Amino acid sequence: MSASRQPSDHAARLRALNPAESFLVQAPAGSGKTELLTDRILALLATVSRPEEIVAITFTRKAASEMHARVLSKLGEAQGPAPESEHARRSWELARAALARDAELGWQLLHHPARLAIRTIDSFCASLVRGMPCLSGLGGMPELASDPEIHYAAAARATLAYAEVSDQVRALIEHMDVDVNAACEAIVGMLAQRDQWMPLLKERDVDRATLERMLADAVSEDMRTVARVMPMGWQDALREIARLAAAELDGADSNPLAALRDWHGDLASESAQSAQWLALAHLLLTKEGGLRKSANKNLGFPPGCAHKAPFTQWLEGAELDASRWTGCLHALRSAPPAHFTDEQWRILSAQLLTLQLAVTQLHQCFAESGEVDFIEIAQRAQQALGSADDPGELLLKLDASIRHLLVDEFQDTSLTQIHLLDTLTAGWQAGDGRTLFLVGDPMQSIYRFRKAEVGLFLNAAERGIGEISLQRLTLTDNFRSQAGVVDWVNATFQALFPRDNDAAAGAIRYTPSEAFNPAMDGPAVQFHVAFGANGPSDADAQAEDTAVALVRQALAQARPDSRHPVAILVRARGHLAKLARRLADEGIACRAVDLVPLARREVVADLVQLMRALAHPADRLAWLSVLRAPWCGLKLDTLHALFGRDLRTPVPALLAAALRAPRGETQQAQASAQQAQRGLWDAAPEPCRAEQVLEPDEWLRLRRVAGILLDAGNDSGALPWAAWIESLWQRLGGAALYAEGSADDAESLFALIERLAPHGGLDLTRLDAALERLFAAPASEAARDDPDTPTRAVQIMTMHKSKGLQFDTVILYGLHRKPAGDRAPLVRIEQSGDRVLFGPVKPRAEKDADPISRYLALREQRRADYEVDRLLYVAATRARHALHLVANASADPKTGQAKAPAAGSLLARLWDAVPSGQKQPPLGDAHDAAEAAPPVSSQLLRRLAPEAVAQLGGQVWRPGNPGFGVPAPGNRPWWQESGQPAWQLEEAYDAAIGTLAHAWLARLGADGLQAWPPDALRGRLPLMSRQLTRAGVPQSQAGPAAGIVLETLLATLDDERGRWLLSQSGARREWPLIDASGKVSVIDLAVSTEGGWLIVDYKTGLAHPGESPADFAQRMRRRHGDQLERYCRSVTSMDGRPARAALYFPRAQAWIEF
User: Fold this and answer.
1) pTM for this entry
2) pLDDT at 77 over 60
């Protein structure tokens, strides 16, 4: 390929660099969108007075980081010689011009890269809130809630508590059959998407007449769509036939064709005249929506009538062209009457008023907790800006400072974000030197669940944004994929996508691409259809074998320098669980990105069952699971022998009884007298029942485990839940019982427990809900062991996660599967332009949905179907060299022909593209499959080895401790170094102690060391105690806790490193920053050095007993590494200088660098 070759859309790319014009650029997959954006930024830099006049907004941190890095890279390369290729030379020349402007005005961008304002939409909104805290209504930048659903649930419960005084809330609960839990869940779901409906309730009248008019407009729009797509000449051909058929039915009890008796002109397109369209649908369509094959007297065509033959002939001729139109006509059948019944309006009013009350309660929850979610930040940012008619001070400031606004991934924009753009660009006029540059690909709009509206792209192309008229540009060249992949994608999706754009319906016409890269040898796209002769499990096994073989082939053929050789993409996370395990078993390195739920990790599942068992002694299943876990590993027949005869008595009681030696009554008094002198496990005169039943190895494990689980000290409640469970787990064997990497998953669980219940009282239901939203670390065990993981691993992820990525080989797996259905919301809502539709929820006791809600649900389903096609396009266009499509199919046992794929599956959409030879099961498939089917096996039960039991048993623990391993007398417990129990030092009140210690350290640094000698600090001990009491520490523990704060301060003053940190007069202390995701971080200490930033996080803790400094450092790095990494990113984003971080433990005299 010639180095000077230009893409076919070269002229459009050059025009997009004109800094005086505003553009909307459609950039299909692989067209170099990021390259175009960075070149546009470079072109603009050569024209502005300050780099901050250019603001680029994207939707992900990854995209913002990549764009920022590319701009800086091009500026750096421009300091060297010009490249040879014409394409690279263009970017080099733009960067040279930007550097000349930089030198002229003294920006020093390469030394201060934070002056490049490339932000995510969330961080941009957060900056607006910080800029005007009073106008935003938040009074400052609050914390970002890590789990906002907690606040949604609290607001929902508070709302439903108004049932006694609010008729609307009471009516809603009664409508849902007094199912308060269902009502609470429904409100939580609505609060999570309140940015979609709150503006509608605030800005528009929701009176009955207005909503009915909007509903009538929607139905009329559907009728106009049916009329528009109806093939030309069909109305003329059907008019007389329909009149005659209607006349034949005049004498019947009912005449479904009555509205067609007077059909003389074109059918009306107003909702009030929908009867004619519905009658036509009855005439032409079956109940399922297909075109009729014949007609009979019940339809108005008695034998011998003159109009039957022409109608039959019309049906035969129309069959090939009717599918699209008949689908629209069938959908019109679901259109409801364009009015609300009194009962519908009563329920809808109750729903809307209840939601408004719920928002008020949510604001109260936010205020009390000091936390908000991203939705709140975005809404308050809009509030801080004001409006075009009534601009706020912040908007006037931004209007003067922002000259050029660029938006990436514009197809993913929501209505809220469009309103933000409208406000930011209010008053901009053509020719005033300010430009708007929007880039995206509507064919890749796949985020409706995030409120993205692809129709907004079409509206912007047609009408612009606000007063700004946008020039439309379309890129066509694909630089990613070889020609074979591009040609297949063009042919397949040209047929799959709708023929016409429709903003209201979310329909996007396909725009073909041109391959810049030549075709490669061999097939570019291949289908692999697995026909399971012995049922679905057989087909799954064949598909897994195929996928594994394809992965091995792709890894073997990949170039050594390939960063992303192969990826497996699925529609939903649940479609890949078995294959992920199979890859790990095969020893194939893999990285599962947000795919494996944390709850499915063996270590987490065992820990959750341990918590359930200890929290609820009667939870039989949990106790049996605990005794089955690796630390004990009892076999099923052993469990049955010990606990299978008595299904009523709790397992812990049965276990205790099984461990007691048999005794007569005369022995009881003697045993009681000796109990204080001998331990629980001293030798008994006769073996207990458990020892008689169990094998020797099992008895050793059970004997040790039971001593821990049945310890009476477990009921003391002295430790918070997380510390107690972690200590028990460590005593049982800890991470050593599981595969490498399990410690990280266990640590994630303990961190979650600490967040949900820092002072105890964990709600296990909340824990289960929180676990559903967490995922295990992405690298599998095989990948951890492979030093070449970044280049030689298969990546497995959902199709949504793959957007923006590319791989040499892509395997689309599980195409035959259907996704789980979505739960209906409390209120169906649809907005299109200025029209908003609301549909009330159906009564819980009724099977059929409310007619209006059903109509809105079907309209939403049509949009979702269009989006599924776009999702498939995104997945297919990730492939650079080869695309493989793997799916299961089944054959009809009577005909031997393949059955049609399940409706709603991706395979059903692609079925026409599957080669005919692969739609038939291979000959002899049943025999071969039966011979090759492997025996069914389950995972082997893993247990502690006898030597490991002996090793753990050799550790001396003092009995009767509160769930915490206490060393034997003579070895001073680690938490008693300061004379206080661990639960006071590092668990129950760690947050209060740490906060106060940090505040005092910041004061010492600000006032200077000379102002605070040790005696002066000791004199403030009573003050520290009072401060802790105000922070929620009970009076009885405030004194010891204050002693820890004082000990921390004195240890810092006594340490040379501590004195150096406190003496840094120019350091930032208690420094609040917000990162690219909008998360607020408060940094204890940030010191600016010659080599960059030094970030220090103070900690008050100590090492565990017997824990080496190296082990302590490793544990702390694992626990705090993500936090410090976020701190470093936040600081580096300010000025571009590198940042390093360290943990400082004054009491432990430990300094742990990262």
Assistant:
1) 0.71
2) yes
Average pLDDT, the chain: 80
Residue 502 makes CB contacts below 8 A (sequence gap 6+) with: 225, 455
Q: What angle do CA 722, 723, 729 make, to 5 degrees?
A: 90
The answer to whether 284 and 292 are in contact (CB under 8 A) is: yes
**CB-CB contact of 82 with 89 (8 Å):** yes
pLDDT higher than threshold 50 for residue 671 = no
Pairing of strands 477-478, 514-515: parallel
The one-letter code for the residue type at 958 is R
Q: What is the rounded average pLDDT of the residues 561-567?
A: 89
Average pLDDT of 271-276?
84
Calpha distance 332→280 (Å, rounded): 11
Characterize the bridge pairing of strands 1092-1098 and 1080-1089. antiparallel
**β-sheet bridge partners, residue 885:** 527, 812
Q: Tell which residue, 664, 667, 646, has the closest CA to residue 655.
A: 646
Report helix, strand or coil for 1085.
strand
Residue 281 CB contacts under 8 Å (≥ 6 apart), including other chains:
329, 330, 332, 333
Taking the C-alpha atoms of residue 552 and residue 33, their distance in angstroms, rounded to an integer, is 32
Cα(664)–Cα(584) distance, rounded to whole angstroms? 56
Crossing angle of helices 620-628/636-643, nearest 10°?
140
Q: Minimal CA–CA distance to 221: which of 870, 828, 841, 830?
A: 830
- Cβ neighbours of residue 849 closer than 8 Å, sequence gap 6 or more: 824, 842, 857
Q: Is 847 left (phi over 0), alpha (psi -120 to 50) or beta?
A: alpha
Report how far residue 144's alpha carbon sits from residue 133's, in angstroms, rounded to the nearest whole number. Answer: 15
Alpha carbon distance 562, 882 (integer Å): 14
User: CA–CA separation, 117 vs 307, rounded Å?
Assistant: 71
Sign of the dihedral through C-alpha 949, 950, 951, 957: positive
Give per-residue pLDDT as tens, 897-944.
788 888 889 999 999 899 888 887 776 544 333 333 333 334 445 556
Tens-digit pLDDT profile for residues 584-594 = 778 887 777 66
Q: How far is CA 141 from CA 381, 394, 447, 1071, in A?
A: 11, 16, 28, 13
Question: What is the DSSP secondary-structure string of 87-102?
Answer: HHHHHHHHHHHHHHHH
Residues in CB range of 555: below 8 A, 6 or more apart = 565, 566, 588, 792, 794
Report the distance separating Cα 420 and Cα 383, nearest Å.
Answer: 10
Provide Rg for the chain, Cα atoms: 35
Contact criterion met (CB below 8 Å) for 864 and 468: no
What is the rounded distance in angstroms from the CA atom of residue 515 to the CA atom of residue 495? 19
Asked if residue 476 has pLDDT above 60, the reply is yes
Report the percentage of the chain scoring pLDDT > 90: 24
Question: In the block, which residue shows the tokens 């407009």?
Answer: 217
Alpha-carbon distance of 628 to 942, in angstroms, equals: 9
The full DSSP string for 292-356 is PS---GGGT--TT-TTHHHHHHHHHHHGGG-HHHHHHHHHHTTPPPSS--HHHHHHHHHHHHHHH
CB 486 within 8 A of CB 29: no
- Residues 6+ positions from 456 with CB-CB distance below 8 Å: 413, 414, 415, 418, 503
What average pLDDT does this structure show over 873-884? Answer: 96
Give the C-alpha separation, 171 to 174, whole Å.
5
- Determine how many CB atoms are found less than 10 A away from the CB of residue 377: 26
Compute the C-alpha angle 906/908/914, nearest 5°. 95
Residue (of 1090, 1075, 2, 1050) closest to 518 by Cα position: 2
- Residue 1100's contacts (CB-CB under 8 Å, 6 or more residues apart) are 985, 986, 990, 993, 994, 997, 1044, 1045, 1048, 1145, 1146, 1147
899 phi/psi in degrees, rounded to 5? -80, 150
